[in-house]
Amino acid sequence: MNKKIMSLVLAGTMLFTLAACSSDEDTAPVVLSGGQASESAVEGAGESAPEGSQAASTDAYVFVYNGISIPMNAPADDIIAALGDSYSYFEAPSCAYEGMDKVYTYGSIEVRSYTREGVDYIAAVVLKDDTVSTPEGIRIGSTDEEVTSVYGTERSEGVAGYEYTMGDSYLSFVMENGKVMAITYTAIVAT
Amino acid sequence: MKKITNSDKLVKFYYVACVVLGVAVAAVAVWYLQKLLVPKYQRGVVEGAMISEYYDSEEPHEVIFLGDCEVYENISTVALYRDYGISSYIRGSAQQLTWHSYYLLEDTLRYETPEVVVFNVLALKYGEPQSESYNRMTLDGMAWSLSKWNAIEASMTGDEHMIDYVFPILRYHSRWNELTQTDFDHVFERDRVTTNGYYMRTDVMPEGEFPAPTPLTDYTLPESSMEYLQRIVDLCRENDIELILIKAPTLYPHWYEQWDEQVRDFADQNGVPYINYIYLRDAIGLDMSTDTYDAGLHLNLSGAEKFADYIGEYLVSHYDLTDYRQVPEVASLWENDILFYDQLRDAQNAELAQYGELQSWGVNAIEN
Fold it and tell me: What part of B 212-241 touches A (C-beta under 8 Å)?
């Protein structure tokens, strides 16, 4: 009898333990799978990609602007600081304040970030004109052949262009009349 | 053979009673802890409380809106009633995906059959589950049914499990050290956060300039969301419900012209109207210097009443809807809704007058 009562007490204790045990993963409604960047823009960048990364050892695309490397899914603050103050800024909170999409526009590029657990990460880089190019030399106005020659044919082909995937990021070229009309680097942010 | 004495029977009874009592106490404790630990969505982020409020609404609803913030923040259900006598409900929640809307329509049909369903198309751009937190805000509030089960199955992201929806304590047990007074105050009772699904904001922040839309390599709307749209069409048809597809008049996130064409083609093929209100902002009378509270992402009360007026005119001129202002038993229920609506408006305006911004609603009210 006493054993049974003791069992109930233990069950209650287990219940309390269940309620009391703490896990950061459990408190975080959104689990990310951000990729670790292949190189850092500034010291520390890329060292703390969002938790839950499934591809922490893989590379991600890196765009370089005025000597500043901008890896996808890298922490954004130091990169934005390094890019300087000459930008226009737009921000849009997600529904129910689940995050904040931020857009920094610097002359020829647009850098977008997303927020997870109070930290901003690089979400995308959009090349806006032909004064900038990918590190491999492709820019708006480059030909279909030049894109294929540089990046190859291992890609997904959409109705209006190509997407090349590297780690948790992809690089897309929107084509028009055989020429590049838009270039975007995008971080793949898993849910 | 040992004879069973009265004393033995008493011991056995005592033993069984203790076990039953212990199990009952444990079950009540688990039930209470679960009620305590689940998020209440009562301050700041209230979107998670919206879906369950529908079950408390007593009046019949001839118009049901389905969608995300582009419906629950942009259309005043009270303006629809006040101006046209339309009794409506917005079954909307944060980033409500197309399959969420489909299963919420199934769920709604368990209680009533509306004359008209209005579906906002922005969510069609999402072909996959997006986030657990948004799933939770939509799904936790649904009453249990096969529709809810299927909605969860369709919505779960990679790390989610059905068991966590069946027993939310498994998901939220670690909130024990995040509990606020709000959690303790609302274990059993929730405050109302919407007026028939409409989330009110009276503050004003003029629309700004949005970033240029990023060109895409493929504008094809995802197959999965279009399939669920087809299921919405079919479900409405089976239940003799008129369906209207709309795109709310807000400009961000960007709604690509290529998406618009696909929805227009789909609507034509299925014989349902599609109205893109982005092109009708002037006709609606929107002044986005005063009719939005967050720089153009959503409408405020002023904008939502204008938009409701415009939609209401379309609804009463195209469909045979009841003027519930002339139905006393329904009108009296709506009077309660209007009272809540007016009091909420006055409370928000009072805070704006006192602080210059809202303190008890929106981002300033988030507790954790």
Answer: 212, 214-220
Identify the bridge partners of residue A91 per DSSP, sorted by sequence position. Answer: A102
pLDDT < 70 stretches in chain B: 1-2, 368
Residues B26, A93: C-beta atoms closer than 8 Å: no
Q: Hey, which residues 22-81 in chain A have their CB within 8 Å of chain B? A: 22-23, 26-27, 29-31
Q: Report CA B137 to chain centroid distance, whole Å.
A: 8
Contact flag B69-A159 (C-beta cutoff 8 Å)? no
The pair of three-digit structure tokens given for residue A187, joined into one six-digit string: 């971080």
| Distance from the first to the final alpha carbon of chain A | 50
Cβ atoms within 10 Å of B247's Cβ, excluding its own? 22
Name the amino acid, one letter, at B63.
V
CA gap A97, B145 in Å, rounded: 29
Label residue A169 exposed, middle or buried (CB < 10 Å: 0-12, 13-18, 19+): buried
For residues A88 and B239, give the distance between their C-alpha atoms in angstroms, rounded to a whole number: 51
For residues A32 and A40, give the distance between their C-alpha atoms in angstroms, rounded to a whole number.
20
Q: How many CB atoms lie within 10 A of CB A14?
A: 11
Calpha distance A181→B329 (Å, rounded): 61
Q: Given this model, what pLDDT does residue A191 score?
A: 61
Residue B246 CA to residue B67 CA, distance in Å, equals 10
Domains of chain B: 38-365 (3.40.50.1110)
Which H or E element spans position B345? helix B328-355
Q: In one letter, which amino acid is B247?
A: K
Structure confidence at residue A22 (pLDDT): 35
Cβ contacts of B29 on chain A, cutoff 8 Å? 12, 15
In the DSSP assignment, the letter for residue B360 is S
Of A95, A97, A124, the CB nearest to B68: A95
The domain spans of chain A are: 29-187
Size of interface A-B (CB pairs under 8 A): 135
* Length of chain A as a residue count: 191
Q: Does A118 touch chain B (CB under 8 A)?
A: no
Cβ of B15 and A1 within 8 Å? yes
Locate the chain A residue with the closest alpha carbon to B158.
A191
Q: Which of B251, B230, B219 is nearest to B119 (CA)?
A: B230
Let me know: does A126 contact A181? Beta carbons within 8 Å.
no
Q: What is the model's pLDDT at position B5? A: 80
DSSP label of B235? H
pLDDT in tens, B311-368: 999 999 999 999 999 999 999 999 999 999 999 999 999 999 999 999 999 989 988 6
Pick the CATH number of A29-187 from 2.60.460, 2.30.30, 2.40.260, 1.10.750: 2.60.460
Lookup: tokens for B159 = 């790390």
A11 pLDDT higher than 50: no
Q: Strand pairing of B116-120 and B63-67?
A: parallel
Pairwise CB contact (< 8 Å): B208 & A90:
yes
d(CA B52, CA B57) in angstroms, rounded, equals 10
For A111, the 3-state DSSP assignment is strand
Neighbours of B258 (CB within 10 A): 14
